[in-house]
Amino acid sequence: MLGDMSANAPDRPRILLDCDPGHDDVVAIIVANHAADLVGITTVAGNAPLDRTTYNACVMRDLLGLAAPVHSGAARPLLAPPLTATFVHGESGLDGADLPAPTREVDSTDAVGFIIETCRATEGTWLVPTGPLTNIALALRAAPDLVDRIAGISLMGGGTFGNRDVMSEFNIWADPDAAAIVFDCGAPLTMAGLDVTHQFLVTHDRISDVDAIAAEFGSKFAAVLADLFRFFADNYISRHDDLAGAPMHDPLAVMAITHPHLFESSRRHVAVETRGELTRGMTVIDRRQIRPRPEPNCTVLESVDAAGAWQLVVDAVRTAAPSH
User: Within a domain: residue 157?
Assistant: First the structure.
């Protein structure tokens, strides 16, 4: 096992997490709380309808004892009908564990306003969207000055293959029009797509690390997390030809900021297909070596030190477990 990865992290970045919890979004929240200054959580419809993703974010805030506010946002894409991934995450968005009811209500239903206000109040904040990009697109459209105020946008989405359609990853497919706005906005972008997230699996062997933490500390939080992992891993294994577990998509968008040494990446131009009959929601990554070509607009994550990334998750869970 590697040592505590936080020792290798830069100064704690300031992160606003926009998410649709979702099993892997939960891990993004845990890692952001451990390795960054988590200034707020905004929610969007995606893995489940907005009422459930917001409820799940409030549950995780309680389980972790977070001070960060939770603000709910867009209940549907900009133009398309609402689409969910309950076939992956269950009807609740977090099937697989007995979750306690949240004790605190959502702080507001104006996620876009919170994003704008927060990023204007303290420049250098990272936006980390791990669901459909609707809230981020709405904020950028309402406040174009954010492009010059934020540190950047580190998102989970896209890739060179799909998990919803042949070429389309769910977060981009669910609201490609919003994704096109974000990729064209001019802010520094980092993309954790399926090519890298499928290198980082939560397997039953890895889940045993979380079981051990739950037993060591008598931690309800760690026990709940292990149950969520088991549901998520078994679902992925049953639905794929050769996956040994579930890809931990969303925490990689956080780790790209907090622990960039875990990744190899390249600078590419990425565009979003919004109209294709077979490719709607595809991220078109320009890997040509011919000139001229569009200037790069995105850092595309290509590989991850999966053992190091998992150790960071274990460290985050172990840190939270004694008091939760």
Answer: yes
Estimate to the nearest angstrom the gap between the alpha carbon of 253 and the chain centroid.
6
Torsion angle (degrees, nearest 10) of CA 92, 97, 101, 102: -90
User: Measured between alpha carbons, how far is 243 from 203 in angstroms, rounded to an integer?
Assistant: 9
Q: Are 263 and 248 in contact (CB under 8 A)?
A: no
Count of domains in the chain? 1
User: What is the rounded distance in angstroms from the CA atom of residue 191 to the CA atom of residue 252?
Assistant: 9
Q: Is residue 218 part of a domain?
A: yes
Q: What is the DSSP letter of 260?
A: G
Does a structural domain hold residue 2? no
Range of the domain at 194: 8-323
CA distance 324 to 222: 8
Do strands 298-304 and 263-272 pair parallel, antiparallel, or not at all (unpaired)?
antiparallel
What's the CATH code of the domain at 50?
A: 3.90.245.10
In-domain check, residue 227? yes
Confidence at residue 158, expressed as pLDDT on a 0 to 100 scale: 98
The chain-wide mean pLDDT, for the chain, equals 94
Residue 253 burial (CB count, 10 A): 29
Condensed to tens digits (0 to 9), the pLDDT of residues 191-231 reads 999 999 999 999 999 999 999 999 999 999 999 999 999 99
Catalytic positions are 249
**pLDDT, tens digit, for every residue of 148-194?**
999 999 999 999 999 999 999 999 999 999 999 999 999 999 999 99
Largest CA distance in the chain: 60
